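tool_call: predict_structure(chain=1)
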Amino acid sequence: MKRETASAFVLFFLAASAALSVALVRAPAALPASAPATEFSAERAIGYLNLFAQTAHPTGSPEHDRVRDYLMGELIRLGVTPESQVATGVMPKFSSAGSVENIAARLKGSSGGADAMALVAHYDSVAAGPGAGDDGSGVVTLLETLRALKAGPALKNDVIFLLTDGEEDGLLGAAAFVSEHAWARDVRIAINFDSRGISGVSQMFETSPENGELVRELAASPHPVSSSLAYEIYKRLPNDTDMTVFKQHGVPVMNFGFIDHWEAYHTPLDTPNHLDRGSLQHNGSYALALARQFGNRELTRLRAPDEIYFSLPGGWFVHYAGKSMVRYVAVVFLMFAMLGVWAFRARIVTALQLLYGFAVFVAAVALCAAAGFGLVRLVTWLHLNWLPEGDVIRSNLYVLSLVAFLVGIWTTLYTLLRKKISAEALALGSFAAWTVLAGITAGFLHGASYVFLWPLAGGLIALVAARMALTKQEPSPFWVVMVCVLALPAIVILVPLVSGLFTALGLTLQGALAIAVVTGLGLGVFLPQLELITQPNSRMASLVAILAGVALFAAGAVTVRYTSDDPKRSIQVYALDADTGKALWANLSDRLDSWTEQYVTSAPSRGPLPGFFPHWISSSFWQHDAPRLPLLPPQAMLIENTPEVYTRSFSVRISSPRHARKIFISAPETEVLEASVNGRLLEKAESSGVSPKGRWSLDYSNVPETGIELKLRVKDTGPVKLRVVDRSAGLPAVPGRVFAPRSAEMTTIHYGDLTMVRKMFVF
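tool_result:
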């Protein structure tokens, strides 16, 4: 085989394998409505979704009540007796509380025991969108699973179907269920479905400590997609779902969701028509299989030592005991040591050259990180100043250009240094760094160890194969093929990982850095293959990669625009201080446009809205003066006062004459020692609203018409100031002024456009 042929073969093999490894990570095909009654059918599930997820239904809205009634009726039709749990949910972590109404139904098992598994989803949506993906998809997953279970043989254990309320307002329904519902003490495992997109594979992104038994059950389900790396990352993030509450109470959990096409997340685009049927089918395949598996097994022994696990393209799922990792790492360490000894004895590599190769690897990864940082900054600046606005974060063209540039950086560096140092020295230097990383993750980040272990093993053997392939003038076809095959462990693990990082984070600053670092690390393990690719023409590979990066970048610059399918997202706010009479228009968006300028003009100021939002929301708004409108402010009335020696306790009733859905209360100048709302204690936690002077706050959702009763004990005997803000959906009408509606290329997001009225009270 000629060197040019070998080079082309290796390059084609790597490119094709990388593309295939991404393409094969896909959800199963949706089953039609004619599927057997005992099977989960996404088409049947969509039938439920079409009847309740067409418009937004946040907690406290009239549409929410209609959805609640529909779901209660549907559960009755499916043959179970649902219960409504009306409660005040409290979540100290977010300084939040609210009036919620959970829906719970119990499918009794044949054993007659109390032990149960819980299938969980939340049925409230945000104010900006109908919530078909988040979390109507989870709700209909439970409904269709219930129907399929009823069509089959009875399970031994009970299954609780829990539709929580107020998840979007701070996990309030889950908190109320775990704290107050009698069934909560029976739950031995909770499985949640909650998505942040409208397509993609549904993967288990979170589980609980001692997950060995849970992972083995997942492996037995159809189409399992998950990784212990995802769990290692997720548990270090500030993200939360209803499973946060169950985990805090010691319940083993499994959390599933799909996250692709998150441009629809929390927007009006989150509709049943946009939801991918395959993603819903994937949810259902988990729910039904795991309900049958856990429904027919003993539920008191679900804890076992953690496993290391990961899925591979094409539906493969690998898992092994965490303690086995030590043996595997030891074997790879031994492989590296043996290869190093051989290279030293054969005088192929010296100790200084090995250190040089190590330094080259570190420098290459650092350059890749710098390129990722620079590219995302450049792209953002261009679309904020020179180019039309567009969804840069989710641009496939821009992320592909980044990857091409990273390949260009590595190959350029390699070919330049290859003239001064042997291929084996450069490769062994990279593998030395990989060996260190494998050891670090094995010791401190177990779930991530597989990312380094198996690509490194393939790379070490590939280095030998590459040397064998190049011992003669014309490379041996056998060894060339072996070099390609030995790249597969790195390809099937690292390429989907990079793709997954883009899906999860997009081309944000954090996302670009993560993609750049992982790609930079990964390219270091492909040096044996790179040696074969660059042998005939050392400059061609880097030139092609850089030109491809330029072309992809240019294509992104020309085509990335906001459209009706991927619109610009913004939030428009009217904020009135009832004490001073000052009102503001405020807009949360990156760049001014003609629609926004209707409110804030073409020369607005920019800054936060202090006092209107909790202190941890520090978003910067475009702002301009607005007319004062005759909006009724929130009310607060003292109903009890108990002076003490050094402290004071008092109760107030707070309400919104405007019937706003949310009320935000803060004590800007007083240290609050203890607080309760509607008789529910707000636990004193580091991240709760019960905090030092000037930091206490409470965000209450779904305010009753009669208001809420707030009781405070404060470290003060004098007057106490309470700042109260009520927030309602939509913008007020301005007499004599007509504002143009948003175009099809624009939309609101999250809590939607808001009207806020603030007033200070002294008690």
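agent: The mean pLDDT is 94. Proceeding to next step.
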